[in-house]
Amino acid sequence: MSPVSLANSICTVKVLALYSSGSQLNAVLNILRCFPRLEKLYFTLKKHPKMDMKNVHLCDPLDPIECLAIHLKKLVFENYKGHDQDADFAKFFILNAKVLKEIKISSPKGNDIKWVDDQHRLLQVEDRASRDAEPEFRSEFSCLGKTKQIHDLLDDPFHCSCCRIKCNVLSGESCP
């Protein structure tokens, strides 16, 4: 990975989808530094080995990540299992993204009220940086391998109505 500097930042990118497979949070943060005006961030979480999450729960105030401080409004986690590594990874963004309006977390267990309550505690939702964003847990079965055209990614890169079942536990919606 090359060092990140203002010389290689891309200010026009507003939507980014990342596939996380064993990456360290610091590597993801270095990528985010390249996209200072990022407004929507989508993660597909894969089974990964232990991630180095020690001492990274808060951004360094002397070295802020611009998109987390000023621009990031939507955060989506796909394939969230709720294990310690997933929770620590998501918690970092919940505790540091200051202007979030939406947090969507898709999980096979998203329709289990007790599990969702436990996740709220693990993610430290009460301490979130943006009071405007309450995590929305969804139970989804998706077609992650489906190829998409670039125009399909403009709104939501994980939207695939043809093969997805959604339900929102917190709103009282029942699952099919």
Would you write up a description of this structure?
The chain is of the alpha/beta class and 176 residues long. It has one domain. The chain contains four helices and five strands, in the order E-H-E-H-E-H-E-H-E. It has helices at residues 25-33, 66-71, 84-96, 113-122, and strands at residues 15-20, 40-45, 74-78, 102-107, 135-139. It has a five-stranded parallel sheet, covered by helices on one side. The protein is globular and about 45 Å long.
Question: Key terms for this structure?
Answer:
single chain; 176 residues; alpha/beta; 5-stranded parallel sheet; 5 strands
Ordered list of secondary-structure elements with their pairings:
Layout: E1 15-20, H1 25-33, E2 40-45, H2 66-71, E3 74-78, H3 84-96, E4 102-107, H4 113-122, E5 135-139
Parallel strand pairs: 1-2, 2-3, 3-4, 4-5
Tell me briefly what this model is.
Helices cover 22% and strands 16% of the residues. The protein contains 4 helices and 5 strands. Strand 1 (15-20), helix 1 and strand 2 form a beta-alpha-beta unit.
N/C terminus separation: 44 Å
Helix tally?
4
Report the average pLDDT across residues. 74
How many β-strand stretches?
A: 5
Largest beta-sheet details: 5 strands, parallel
Oligomer, anyone?
Answer: single chain
The helix-strand sequence is EHEHEHEHE
